[in-house]
Amino acid sequence: VPGEGASLRLCSTRVAQEGINKPVIDRIIRVDHAGEYGANRIYAGQMAVLGRSSVGPVIQQMWNQEKDHLKKFNELMVAYRVRPTVLLPFWNVAGFVLGAGSALLGKKGAMACTVAVEESISEHYNNQIRTLIEEDPEKYKEILQVIKQFRDDEQEHHDIGLEHDAEATPAYSVLKTAIQLGCKVAIFLSERI
User: Fold this and answer.
1) pLDDT tens digits, one per residue of 105-141
2) Which of 63, 88, 125, 134 has the most CB atoms at less than 10 Å from its CB?
3) Per-residue pLDDT, 16
4) What was the pLDDT predicted at 12?
5) Which residues contact 52 (CB under 8 A, 6 or more apart)?
6) Which conformational region is residue 7 in: left (phi greater than 0), alpha (psi within -120 to 50 degrees), or beta?
7) Which pLDDT score is estimated for 15?
8) Domain 22-191 classification at class level
9) 114 and 160 in contact (C-beta within 8 Å)?
10) d(Cα 175, Cα 181) in Å, to the nearest integer?
11) Is the per-residue pLDDT at 97 higher than 60?
12) Of 101, 95, 80, which Cα lies nearest the Cα of 28?
């Protein structure tokens, strides 16, 4: 029991921030949180349309991993004191619409969306890994470990999409290009706003 005048301080979830490149870390955590939030909304949209179909369990499995990713980035945002992007309400709607819209094209359409998004995110994570290694791999060890694991999960989702006939979607290359352009815009904006 604290004595008179003494205060009780609970353990902090914050990370020691000495020596870190705060603008780089803020940008990485903010955009990755937004991306995982958007991915959750995409899978929610796909499940709303295809949840009871034969591909429903596959989508649910990928969505469960995305939920874990989002949970981790929520924790990192608190630990590193990073504010979320102000665009979350937009990504909420846009992600769900993209997921449901691609699922309305059928299983192949949903998988084409998955391939396009996950390929973009894997590439994005690889760029972040390079940035953090150039900065100081030891200093950013925890974040690097998280990003590498999530990149591997996203690559697995990409491969699952290919295994489920994503490339057989009508106008696959047009759909993929359009979705990936949207991903690039979302990444650019979420890093900054």
Assistant:
1) 999 999 999 999 999 999 999 999 999 999 999 999 9
2) 125
3) 58
4) 45
5) none
6) beta
7) 55
8) mainly alpha
9) yes
10) 10
11) yes
12) 80
